[in-house]
């Protein structure tokens, strides 16, 4: 073995360097990561909307001894509760040894993902094809969503108030749906449009049928036939679309990517890839030091507004309820609380290097990424976490051998984005963003690294244990 030079030794001591996680982790931990991701993959296959995620976490919580939260009850250390907000968001809580008024520990992730929503009066017939009109949900590159098999999910509230749950196109043998696109032979004019307008919002129409109702004469018989099928299957009439939330998402299952199976490709990583580890980390808590919560929120992709999004007061009200149980005020709990806002960040893509600043980007396989600030144009619209809080989380991660990295969402003035962090910071809670780096974010088929998913789980666990 050659002796290291003085410069090499000094460089080892002074220079910040981030290694590939696979070069740092032992075989046991790499196997543990792969195993953890098998659970994550099956969760992702069975949960494609926020409602399905909320149901999943509720039923997993019940299996693990969580009971519905009762704001009038006094809870003891180690007791476990869940609160479901309108079927679309969940708070999972394990009570700690210390009082809530000494502060709680929160992991906040979101369970909604970009998708294609139906308009309220969606069904129409054109040239003997039946189609749905849509309004996309969240920030998407619209051209990516054509010619992809789609499944239909959601609820329909019938005239009499009965709620019908819809999930069609996920199981083998079920029909699926699709947005058509123009053939290249005739796309000369379309190809001259900018990518942004390659497919426009009103061109995201879903093909849902083509065969007419046969036993009589009349107009729009293809549409009528679809209504007949919907009536037989769900007991609905056309007017019931007015009180429905129906959503189209990619119908294909997740799969491993790469000869080495190191990556997972699938729909909805943003942000279920942080929601799942957040819930698992809370499920692991027996009797934590501080009361530990996972908040799995809706509406992040449309700006967190609405009563199931984190810009509403449901988390605040929950924390106020915890305070009241102890005869304290909500603000006593909030000002001493700490939160990891668990959301994805962009992973450096060597095919598109120009939008990222390499020294401050996150990379696939370099662990959970900590994002001090998001926002855009001079840090507008962000909660810029304090050096003190970043320093504290850094120590927690390092002490627990969590592999982590920093990351910024793109070059300065390149674009930008936000998370729920600012809404939590606005409650007077210390918060910083952490999460999994993602390739092809917001596309129908996003890609993440298994080691990064596992490191996110380990990081969140370490936070609850600290
Ligand atoms: Mn997100
Ligand atoms: Mn997103």
SSE layout:
Blueprint: H1 6-14, H2 21-24, H3 27-46, H4 50-63, E1 67-68, E2 80-85, E3 89-94, E4 105-110, E5 115-126, E6 129-137, E7 150-157, E8 163-168, E9 178-179, E10 206-209, H5 221-234, E11 244-250, E12 255-257, E13 263-266, H6 269-283, E14 292-297, H7 314-325, H8 330-335, E15 338-342, E16 345-346, E17 368-371, H9 387-399, E18 404-406, H10 421-425, E19 430-435, E20 437-438, E21 446-449, H11 450-465
Parallel strand pairs: 1-2, 4-14, 4-15, 15-19, 16-20, 17-18
Antiparallel strand pairs: 2-3, 3-14, 5-6, 5-11, 6-10, 7-8, 7-11, 9-10, 12-13, 13-21, 17-19
This protein binds manganese (II) ion (2 copies).
What does this structure look like?
This protein has 466 residues and is of the alpha/beta class. The protein has two domains: 7-113 and 267-465, Zn peptidases (Aminopeptidase), CATH 3.40.630; 115-250, Roll (Aminopeptidase i, Domain 2). It has eleven helices and 21 strands. The two termini are 39 Å apart. The model has no long low-confidence stretch (mean pLDDT 97). One manganese (II) ion is lined by residues 110, 270-271, 300, 343-344.
